[in-house]
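Figure 2 data, in text form.
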Amino acid sequence: MTRELTGPEAAALAEALVPGSVDRTTATACYLKPDRLVETLRALRDDPEANLVHLTNLCGVDYWDHFEVEAWGRENPEVPSVTPVFHGAWIQECEAYDLLGIRFTGHPNLYRILLWEGYPGWPLRKDFLSMPGGLQPGLGEFAGVARRQEPPVKVIE
């Protein structure tokens, strides 16, 4: 039977199994420390109470200053591969690498799956289509939504 855990519930399970493994938590998410990631996920998978035996989804999100698989920095984002724990992460890590440039240390064969080797750049990064003068493509705002903070991009002259 599938059950849904809140962020604090997941954090409590993780901390009980691997003390010091949780970085932070919200109502809906538990963020694990990258250096304890594989160990913690293995413990959660193997623990009968946690019973987290299936990786449903692994993806990345660009937040300008970090990527939401907790890969900090834009120049060389890197996190440990969870493929040794969940074999199903194999293709999902390849996708995050292909589209965002996030490298997964320890992945058995990290390669581009949608684009060809040598493709210039990472198309799901927010700065992928930066234009001269610091302009960004797309809408600056949506109707009824406050203006967002200007992105910290490098100006291409």
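Caption note: The mean pLDDT is 85.
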